[in-house]
Design goal:
Elements lengths: L3 E8 L6 H17 L4 E4 L26 H13 L2 E11 L2 E9 L5 E6 L5 E2 L2 E2 H4 L10 E2 L4 E4 L8 H9 L4 E6 L2 E3 L4 H22 L2 E6 L1 E4 L9 E4 L3 E3 L5 E4 L6 E8 L2 H8 L2 H4 L16
Parallel strand pairs: 1-2, 2-3, 9-10, 10-12
Antiparallel strand pairs: 1-17, 3-4, 4-5, 6-7, 8-9, 11-14, 12-15, 13-14, 15-16
Helix pairs in contact: 4-5
């Protein structure tokens, strides 16, 4: 039986001031609803520019509580438009305790659940360990009226363990809000290798788990607030892959878009019958996976 789900990917260049950025988010969600979307996915940390390019204690003022202003605004919108929204927020949990948190808003405007980013990078231009405490909610899918969502965030996308654990817990699709782009100092060849690696590994998660994968990235150039680098050119290219890794839709590199796509969730059962990876897993022999490294 066909289980169709209409999803919308909202890929945007972040605007300043923040109220202008929030206005474009609301406009895009309304456009998605007009296109009959049932599930809307926003990019990572969509409310603000990507502040993690530098370490600045003043940027902690950008964080908010959950529930808070953004969940109230998005909750009202979800209730009005009768759709599910996957948001990505800078969460202030307590004084000095902050998370990079995905929040799922149900069609009734209530929070269905949240996921706190587990893998936190610390690289030039991506100083996230300064801002974010690693997540403590585990890899637990969030049940919604449209599907059971396996939400992961950006750097999580490089870890097959995270995707597998979400799938083993019953996720019906995997969703990755993302903020990733190029260093202008890299050659064009290196830039393309990085982007292709990003797409390839996520398509691999789709194949290995027999699930649809939704990856939503930001686009546009964002300057480095410290002026120590040329900033980041986010590469867009948001996409949806089917359970055999096939590309179902893809946004451009350099333009904001509201991209809709219809998923047939019943394909997970069909694909897993032909490629029964879960059946053939050797769970009795995987104990070393929890080690940091196997020293010889």
């Amino acid at each position: 039986m066909t289980q169709e789900l209409n999803v919308a990917l909202i890929q945007q260049a972040c605007l300043t001031p923040q109220d202008a950025n929030m206005k474009q988010i609301v406009t895009a969600i309304r456009e998605a609803a007009a296109a009959k979307a049932q599930l809307v996915v926003l990019q990572e940390l969509h409310n603000t520019p990507y502040f993690c390019q530098t370490e600045n204690p003043d940027f902690f003022d950008l964080a908010e509580s959950v529930p808070g202003p953004s969940t109230r605004l998005l909750g009202d919108l979800a209730k009005e438009l009768k759709l599910v929204i996957v948001a990505s927020l800078f969460e202030k949990r307590a004084a000095g305790l902050y998370h990079n948190t995905a929040v799922v808003i149900e069609t009734n405007g209530e929070i269905a659940g949240r996921y706190r980013k587990m893998h936190i990078p610390d690289d030039p231009g991506y100083y996230e360990k300064y801002y974010f405490t690693p997540g403590d909610l585990g890899f637990e899918p969030i049940q919604t009226s449209v599907a059971k969502l396996g939400i992961l965030v950006c750097w999580d996308q490089w870890y097959p363990e995270a995707a597998r654990l979400m799938a083993l817990a019953g996720a019906e699709l995997l969703i990755y809000p993302t903020a990733i782009g190029w260093d202008s100092a890299d050659s064009e060849e290196e830039q393309q290798r990085q982007k292709e690696a990003w797409m390839t590994i996520q398509r691999g998660h789709a194949i290995a788990n027999g699930l649809h994968v939704i990856a939503v990235n930001r686009t546009g150039h964002e300057p480095d607030p410290s002026k120590q680098s040329d900033g980041i050119q986010f590469w867009g290219s948001s996409f949806v892959a089917g359970p055999q890794g096939e590309l179902l839709t893809r946004c451009s590199e350099d333009k904001s878009c509201v991209q809709t796509c219809t998923l047939n969730l019943a394909r997970t059962e069909t694909v897993r019958r032909s490629w029964p990876y879960f059946r053939d897993r050797r769970t009795d022999s995987y104990h070393d996976i929890i080690k940091r490294y196997r020293d010889t």
